[in-house]
Write a sequence for this structure.
């Protein structure tokens, strides 16, 4: 009888440990709100000017050379456990989005261009680092 109690106790510990591990794995792989960079758009600009600006930003940000440079500077391949910097740049291109949105300010809602990266909970800090590298790359483009 005592052997059955010990066996049941061991089985219960294994099941609880496996359940806790599964729950933890589930929680860190959930999608999280995207990491955003927001740039204000002049209120007096037309919708065509805004869409042209968004299209230009998409073309510039999705350029493979820029994505490769950003992924190399941030060490993205190592952080996401990918084989090469080109694979990391490809993954970064899939995560990146540019859209028109609104930001709440004390003066009311203002139009903004949102540049963001989709990520999971466990990748959030890495994507925050990538967004700072993207911001620096955008600043260098503006200075040219």
């Amino acid at each position: 009888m005592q052997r059955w109690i010990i066996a049941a106790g061991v089985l219960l510990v294994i099941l609880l440990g496996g359940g806790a591990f599964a729950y933890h794995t589930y929680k860190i792989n959930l999608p999280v709100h995207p990491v955003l960079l927001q740039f204000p758009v002049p209120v007096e600009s037309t919708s065509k000017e805004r869409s042209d600006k968004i299209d230009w930003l998409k073309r510039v940000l999705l350029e493979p050379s820029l994505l490769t440079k950003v992924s190399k500077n941030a060490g993205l391949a190592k952080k996401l456990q990918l084989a090469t910097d080109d694979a990391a740049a490809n993954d970064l291109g899939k995560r990146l989005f540019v859209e028109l949105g609104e930001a709440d300010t004390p003066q009311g809602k203002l139009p903004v261009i949102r540049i963001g990266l989709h990520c999971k909970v466990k990748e959030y800090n890495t994507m925050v680092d990538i967004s700072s590298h993207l911001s620096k790359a955008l600043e260098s483009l503006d200075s040219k």
